Amino acid sequence: MTTKKTAPLWLPAADALELMQVRPQTLYASVSRGRIRAKPDAADPRRSLYHRDDVQRIAARARGRRSVETVASEAIQWGEPVLASAVSTVADGRLLYRGQDACVLAEQATLEDVAGLLWESPPPRFAASSAPTLPGTQAAPLQAGLLALASRAATDLPSRGRSRSVLQAEAADAIGALADAMLGTAPAAREMPLHMRLATAWRRPRAADDLRRALVLLADHELNASTFAARVTASTGASVAACLLTGLSTLTGPLHGGASAAVQALMRHASDIGAEAAVREWLAHDRPLAAFGHPLYPGGDARCGALLANIELPPAFEELRGIGERLLGEAANIDFALAALAAVHKLPPGAPLTLFALSRTVGWTAHVLEQQTAGQLIRPRARYTGPMPGTAEAISESRFPARARRPSSSRG
């Protein structure tokens, strides 16, 4: 009996090309488009290694050995885009907003400027209400934000059939209300751009420009989980507030917008036992390091570099970045940068998620508007893996008599 040898996780170019049966230019193009992850070869930094699973997936696709169902299911897991969109993309290691480099925009633009670009409208104002609730008199920011959007979602009109300009105005109003709930800024901040409202609410005026930069970099990121969720909601014709609520609910997950909290926890652990010991302990317990790597940026998350460009990293963060990149072979990402930003400016607990949430509403709105233009319901099919008739049905029949079951009128 022979044992099948498993290929190593990272392959040299020769092995990748042999599996794919393509020219080197095709391999490099797949890397630049984010379809194949790559990293420098530790033994020879002039060469690259390529992720085995990505190479095998593309090789199998080229040979036509997979069913339509398999291709479709893999498309949801860092595969090809599942929806056509002109809002944003990651190409050649750069994040582009309607063709403009987000890192370049972050040097000068405000979130309001980016909203105008993504919404294809004049820059909106996310104004505070005339008498917002002051800090300390409301629920925690995330809870308050969810409640504010839920309240609007229960009463706002459906988005389907209404003009683009009306939906844009409604979205700006909803984002302003969300900021009211999460920040509770004083009336003096009513006309301020959002990054100034943040700096005012957190009493960190010196952080204003770094907050502006972060908001721009986080405004959209293609079809991530929260954006896809918001688009699915939009495809049903639900209100703008309902779409934003769906996006915000999805963003709260620890694998998405909540990842910066994991980085902050890792930093606290590192301060107790040392950075290398903390990283090794997390890896030994199979805990993913949210601070490093991103499937769409084989050469490193461009947003991280752009956000940290004007920030002097504290020694503890500098040490963690060096150790993490050495042990994992992956560069620090935007979640690391957000945690560092919060530490440098001593922002309140939960500030990274608040930044993420307020900024990403702009992208969600752009996708909601685009989905309304498409006018189609997003309704994927499932690839069923459960039992078939004769097994589960026979058991059900014995437990639940036919007279107890009623036909369903739901179309699903």
Descriptive overview:
- By secondary structure, the chain is mainly alpha-helical.
- It has helices at residues 13-20, 24-32, 52-63, 68-75, 102-105, 111-119, 141-153, 164-183, 194-201, 208-218, 225-235, 240-251, 259-273, 275-284, 302-308, 315-328, 334-344, 351-374, 392-399, and strands spanning 10-12, 38-41, 44-51, 88-91, 94-97, 100-101.
- The strands form 2 sheets. Strands 1-3-2 form a 3-stranded antiparallel sheet.
- Helix 7 (141-153) runs antiparallel to helix 8 (164-183), helix 7 packs antiparallel against helix 12 (240-251) and helix 13 (259-273) crosses helix 14.
- The protein is globular and about 60 Å long.
User: What is the end-to-end distance?
Assistant: 49 Å
Written as H for each helix and E for each strand, in order along the chain, the element string is EHHEEHHEEEHHHHHHHHHHHHHHH
Mean pLDDT: 84
- Strand-residue fraction? 5-15%
Helix content: 40-55%
Q: How big is the Rg?
A: 24 Å
The total count of strands amounts to 6
- Based on Cα principal axes, name the global outline: globular
Report the total helices.
Answer: 19
The main sheet comes to: 3 strands, antiparallel
| Strand order of the biggest β-sheet | 1-3-2
Could you name the ranges where pLDDT drops below 50 across 5 or more consecutive residues? 407-411
- Helix and strand content put the structural class at mainly alpha
What's a quick, concise take on this entry?
With 412 residues, this protein is mostly helical. It has helices at 13-20, 24-32, 52-63, 68-75, 102-105, 111-119, 141-153, 164-183, 194-201, 208-218, 225-235, 240-251, 259-273, 275-284, 302-308, 315-328, 334-344, 351-374, 392-399, and strands spanning 10-12, 38-41, 44-51, 88-91, 94-97, 100-101.
